[in-house]
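job 3f2a | input accepted
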Amino acid sequence: MTQVETVTSSADKAKLAAAALLVIGGLTAYYLLAAKGALVQWGGLLALLAGAVALFFTSETGRSLIGFGRDSVREVKKVVWPTRKESLQMTGYVFAFVVVMALFLWLTDKTLEWVLYDLVLGWKR
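job 3f2a | predicted structure (125 res):
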């Protein structure tokens, strides 16, 4: 496993701050442009959000997020998925276990009910 040491430069901090300001600006523009119409309102919001995303992905944090995504996809490709037959067998095992456990708990409940109410307390129903 590779050890990654992150050193955040002031340029990266400035990029992240600018991206945050673009998000805030997009939300502000959305509400301020309400009188101009929905197309202008949504256009301003989407344009500023796209700029914020683009700026974020040029920072070191954004690049490491992209790298994490690539590594995750690579790991998912290594997974050996069960066949349909194996999936159906395991599902059957789970259902059988649930039925057996339900019967066991029901029998335990009825036995305790009989012992406590009929034998100990003498309450006949």
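job 3f2a | The chain has two domains: 10-77, 83-125.
job 3f2a | closed
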